[in-house]
Description:
Elements: E1 20-27, E2 33-40, E3 46-47, E4 60-64, E5 71-75
Antiparallel strand pairs: 1-2, 2-3, 4-5
Amino acid sequence: SIFEISPQKTSNLAVGEPVIALLTVSKRNETTYSFNQTLQGRLGERISLLRNDIRPRPPRVHIKNEDGSYERTYTLEYG
């Protein structure tokens, strides 16, 4: 989206909602995977959440295979 900013008028920036949570999974080797969670706004902008300048608790991801023989919840880490 293209917008123009000038001192004489108000500009509307169509950013923000809806916010989409994205989870990217990368295979590091045969037994290790890396997870990356990001928040994205309607124009593809990255969104950060802070409360009193502090990040909230890291999100958790629940993994279960099709037959239910593997089921585990992990807490993601920042950084």
